[in-house]
């Protein structure tokens, strides 16, 4: 082959690749990608990680707080940092979000990023990275987070009703995840996020003392040897401040023991225990009993969840501070 023809081949390949990219952009809209900030803010990932680590060292509840915050962000208006907006009747004021914690970590990371590369990194990306880093600091496995999200300009408490509830049946849980493009495997893997963190007694006390309307009974799906333990942790007359690990015995470590607890009828939330009772989700609980299977699927499902209804390109904005729309 002469020199001219190999040049033509290179140009042809170039054009084909360009057309393929154009086609992907037109058909699917712009997508997030790993390394979106590699030129504009190369230190973004190390800044977010060190910020999460610093706060985590002073308070371990930061990790579960940030992981749950990202989930609650993604399920309402997509992963666009709408959860972070302060003000009357914004998402964070809605009952399902009242116990979220870790906002100060995002604000801290944003301040450092504005100093390093002003006006470049979205709050939505900071939250997605911080959720990944929360799993990293609790000794879970890691994954690459595609970035390039833009921040949303709408945040309404009234839009939070599609968040899953702790009494939801498996069918309702599946349906709420399906609406976000997440399948049954994603549901079980992502609820495995409950391997870290705690729940306030208010979310499961009825299972211990008052399960049916006839009263004075406990949820029969709780292991009878586990029931007195939970009752001791959550007395009927508790002042409302007590919290209990969602993964009994391992609430600070991102492992797969949450699924073992479900298998042993040691689930704390009713919605969690139902994942073992229902055959369609039990299959996945069984698969995730081994830590390797779980950690790989958790990372995959997190990447899917982190891409739910994301804004990219020229949509939305890059906020100056994460708690307010520009
Ligand atoms: C059916 C779906 C889900 C339901 C019904 C549910 C419900 C709950 C409830 C009631 C709490 C206790 C909140 C508190 O007392 O502060 C909680 C905590 C938590 N959830 Fe979920 N959740 C679900 C899915 C998820 C997903 C998908 C993730 C993340 C991938 C997640 C991560 C967490 C974490 C880390 C905590 C502990 C928070 C803390 O310690 O501050 N949850 N969840
Ligand atoms: C960690 O933060 C939580 C939530 O803000 C708080 O209730 C708890 O007392 C803190 N723990 C420590 C050890 O400071
Ligand atoms: C049990 O539930 C019923 C109906 O939901 C309620 O009226 C009653 O006060 C509850 N009892 C206790 C001890 O919580």
UniProtKB/TrEMBL annotation:
This protein's superkingdom?
A: Eukaryota
Q: Name one GO molecular function term.
A: peroxidase activity
Feature type site, description Transition state stabilizer = 68
**Catalytic residues (positions):** 72
Q: Identify the residues that bind Ca(2+) 2.
A: 195, 247, 255
Q: Which major enzyme category is it?
A: oxidoreductase
**Listed Pfam families:** peroxidase
Residues annotated for Ca(2+) 1 binding in this entry: 73, 76, 78, 80, 82, 91
Q: Which SUPFAM superfamilies match?
A: Heme-dependent peroxidases
Q: What is its EC number?
A: 1.11.1.7
What cofactors does the UniProt entry give for this protein? heme b; Ca(2+)
Q: Any S-S bridges, and between which cysteines?
A: 41-117, 74-79, 123-322, 201-234
Which residues take part in binding heme b? Answer: 194
Keywords, A to Z, come to:
Calcium, Disulfide bond, Heme, Hydrogen peroxide, Iron, Metal-binding, Oxidoreductase, Peroxidase, Secreted, Signal
> What reaction does this enzyme carry out catalytically?
2 a phenolic donor + H2O2 = 2 a phenolic radical donor + 2 H2O
In terms of PANTHER family, this protein maps to:
PEROXIDASE 25-RELATED (PTHR31235)
| Known role | Removal of H(2)O(2), oxidation of toxic reductants, biosynthesis and degradation of lignin, suberization, auxin catabolism, response to environmental stresses such as wounding, pathogen attack and oxidative stress. These functions might be dependent on each isozyme/isoform in each plant tissue.
Similarity comment: Belongs to the peroxidase family. Classical plant (class III) peroxidase subfamily.
Which protein, by its recorded name, is this? Answer: Peroxidase
Source organism per UniProt = Juglans regia (English walnut)
- The protein's gene is named LOC109007093
């Amino acid at each position: 082959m002469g020199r001219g023809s190999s040049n033509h081949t290179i140009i042809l390949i170039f054009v084909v690749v360009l057309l393929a990219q154009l086609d992907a952009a037109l058909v699917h809209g712009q997508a997030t990608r790993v390394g979106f900030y590699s030129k504009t803010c190369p230190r973004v990932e190390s800044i977010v990680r060190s910020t999460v680590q610093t706060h985590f060292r002073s308070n371990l509840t930061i990790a579960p707080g940030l992981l749950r915050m990202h989930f609650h962000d993604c399920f309402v208006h997509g992963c666009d940092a709408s959860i972070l907006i302060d003000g009357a009747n914004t998402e964070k004021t809605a009952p399902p979000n009242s116990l979220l914690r870790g906002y100060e970590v995002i604000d801290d990371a944003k301040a450092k990023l504005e100093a390093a590369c002003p006006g470049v990194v979205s709050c939505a990306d900071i939250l997605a990275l911080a959720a990944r880093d929360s799993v990293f600091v609790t000794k879970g496995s890691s994954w690459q987070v595609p970035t390039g999200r833009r921040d949303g300009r709408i945040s309404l408490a009234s839009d939070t009703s599609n968040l899953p509830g702790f009494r939801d049946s498996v069918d309702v849980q599946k349906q709420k995840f399906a609406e976000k493009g997440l399948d049954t495997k994603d549901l079980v893997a992502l609820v495995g996020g409950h391997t870290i963190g705690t729940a306030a007694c208010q979310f499961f006390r009825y299972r211990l003392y008052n399960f049916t309307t006839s009263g004075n009974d406990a949820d029969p799906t709780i292991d009878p040897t586990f029931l007195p333990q939970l009752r001791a942790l959550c007395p009927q007359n508790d002042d409302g401040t007590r919290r209990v690990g969602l993964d009994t015995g391992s609430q600070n470590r991102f492992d797969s023991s949450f699924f073992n607890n479900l298998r042993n009828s040691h689930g704390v939330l009713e919605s969690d225990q139902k994942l073992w009772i229902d055959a369609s989700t039990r299959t996945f609980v069984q698969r995730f009993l081994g830590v390797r299977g779980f950690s790989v699927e958790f990372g995959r499902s997190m990447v899917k969840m982190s891409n739910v209804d994301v804004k990219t390109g020229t949509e939305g904005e890059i906020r100056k501070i994460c708690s307010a729309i520009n």
